[in-house]
Amino acid sequence: MPEAKYRLLQGNEACAYGAVAAKTEFFAGYPITPSTEIAEILAYELPRRGGRFIQMEDEIGSIAAIIGASAAGAKSMTATSGPGFSLMQENLGYAYMTEIPCVIVNVQRGGPSTGLPTKVAQADTMQAKWGTHGDYYPIVIAASNVSECFHMTIRAFNLSEKYRSPVILLLDEVLGHMRERIRIPEEDEIELVMRPKATVPPGWYKPYELTATNISPMANYGEGYRFHITGLTHDAQGYPTSDPVQIKTKLDKLKNKIMLNTDDICTFREDNTEFAGIVVVAYGTVARVAQQAVSIARRRRFRIGLFQPETIWPFPEKGFLKAIEHARLVIVAELNQGQLIHEIRRIAPPKVNVVGTFRYDGELMNPSEIVNKVREFG
Amino acid sequence: MSESKDTKRIEIRLSGSGGQGLIFAGILLAEAIGIYGDKNVAQTQSYGPEARGGASRSDVVISEDIIFYPKTTELDILLALTQEACDSYYPALKGGGTLIVDSTYVSQVPTDKVYSIPFTRIAREKIGTPVVANVMSLGALAAITKVVKLDELEQVVLSRAPRGTEDKNKAALNEGFELGEKAVKDYRAKFIDAPRRQ
User: Fold this and answer.
1) Could you give the ipTM of this predicted complex?
2) What angle, 0 to 180 degrees and rounded to 10, lies between the N-to-C axes of helices B133-145 and B150-160?
């Protein structure tokens, strides 16, 4: 862990140190470009702090290991990229179903399949939402600079613990490998949230008890509570059920614990959207490109603003609708063939023209590509 | 993109072939400017097939403002340690930009407005190893472009250089700075002072 307050770090390095600051106790992973530095640093840092690092046989084993470690009470995390993220989908569903907190970092590269190991993309945007089967409501957040890599890793843990849910942090190859100046905060500046603990006597404990917040207190294995965990749809006791009422209760609980708390979960940044006739939407590294493009276009007298979701899923719908209140044109900039644009089209009122600017050749978008769209449609 | 650039933004590319230590040089430069020089800085690199034998590069963007777009569009400064890198990246250098080449390997320069210094040869002869040519070229870059101060570079070199190589790297840095100062004098004599004397 760097001691100096200001350091020059890669996004991946900042993410790893963020995990240390979040008091991660367990990391299991399988090295994959462009995420490997995260595993490399935590392999060094965690054992020195009483934590554990394990390199698993593959990504299926990696996510299984972090789910198990978290069930035993350890704050757990893994980091991967596209091909590994695909392998994790089945067990990711298990974590949503069993409501076990864990953090999965996906440093996005080009796909499909092994695709472009060393090149940038944002083509896992939809996979992060729909990757595993069934109805579930993932929390997915994204960083756009090195400092955010540090702080968003901490936030990923906090959300994960608070909502008893896996949280996916999306980075990308450019951000993961880019070096910038970052201020490492003091320990007392960092707020950590812990999972709600079981307080009732063991005999009374229901691991999936329906509460007012839809979040059930969590007993960790080894704390004296005896209970059942299964990926089968289960009742409040954790036992498999085929009772329609119990099934509906469980699926509503999974939905409501996230979707009734979007005010807390969904964050975003906006720049000059207040009276903007044109709003550019972009996340991650592309948001920086968009910010530059917006500054250029504003100098050319376009009334244009930027909306940057920090939480991608659930999409910050309320904030976005407010940001496009006066907009007639929305430009969605993505490093894929058009994924987030579907969500934007769903949310935007019919009178708003939604157009996309997409790049998927392995290179980061240039601000002029967005400025050209502004000229063309604005 | 030129119209978009704020005047305070400076884009630098350090280029050569894989193994010449250009990514490391980029980190040293970025850290000297960002941490010891207190300016905003973003260092990116291109790797993949290119890093294995072909042209390899490390880009550094400096600005007094927040850096949004982290990559380069028009280079203000290009350092090329190989002919291939010089040929590949010279078109990205903007008009009036600064070109610095290692004349050990770059024999054909695309312009006469160039700072030619045989970094690798001098590193081998004076320091005893060619591997410090990257650090030597940073010293020259500091003297020629003044985007970074010599003492800022020296602090970073001493803290980042592998243990046991500090002295050689420091010597290379200072040697490079002197070579850079001399190259500036020669350049001035050729392009700035000479026409006035006529």
Assistant:
1) 0.91
2) 160
